[in-house]
Amino acid sequence: RLKSIKKILISSSKKRFNNTLVNGKVYEFNVFSATLGYSRKYVFIDSVGKTEDDFIRCVLETFRRLGSLTQILKTDNMTAIVSLRNGNRKIHSRIQYFFNDLGVKLELCECRTPETKGKCESSNRFINWLVSFDYRIKNEMELIHIIENQITSECNKEINRRTKILSALLVSYN
């Protein structure tokens, strides 16, 4: 079992992307992004779909890469985990049980509020780097490597704009 440390993780599932491989084949994919609240450490994971199973897989992989659980995970209101009825949001029971079992509190981001928007938008700008790889990638595995390793590594080398400190140095303070 991974230990839980005081961190807030903000996750978002990005829209479907298309990337054309060298051979002309179009690869369609989604990107799950997670950002630690204070350090702004990023994790990007390739995801073919946006189902409950995809979300659970991405969350578990994120915690594995971080080496710990967070106390709180805030997420956007993706339809894979939230239903909207009469203007009320309800987390799907399977997802709620999953987080209860992990001992992690799941919070939904409030619509039209700025608290987490900057963190998500910042991670989105890194994902936009994928456009430059159009027609340059040989296969899906290379694209997945670029998303999950190269882009993640590059953006985690950046200086945090708010603290002026390298994100990697701030991880222990989350």
Task: List the SSEs and their pairings.
Layout (H helix, E strand, L loop, with lengths): L3 E10 L3 E4 L5 E11 L5 E6 L4 H15 L2 E7 L6 E4 L2 E4 L1 H10 L2 E4 L8 H11 L12 H17 L10 H4 L4
Parallel strand pairs: 1-5, 5-8
Antiparallel strand pairs: 1-3, 2-3, 3-4, 6-7
Helices and strands, in order, run as EEEEHEEEHEHHH
Radius of gyration: 16 Å
Counting helices, strands and paired strands, the structural category is alpha/beta
Question: Overall 3D geometry?
Answer: globular
The first-to-last residue Cα distance is 20 Å
Round the mean pLDDT to the nearest integer and report it: 81
Largest sheet: 6 strands, mixed
Task: Describe the overall structure.
There is one protein chain. The protein is of the alpha/beta class and 174 residues long. It contains 5 helices and 8 strands, in the order E-E-E-E-H-E-E-E-H-E-H-H-H. The protein has helices at 52-66, 93-102, 117-127, 140-156, 167-170; strands spanning 4-13, 17-20, 26-36, 42-47, 69-75, 82-85, 88-91, 105-108. Strands 1, 2, 3, 4, 5 and 8 form a 6-stranded mixed β-sheet that branches. The chain is globular. The relative contact order is 0.21. The model is unreliable at 1-5 (pLDDT under 50).
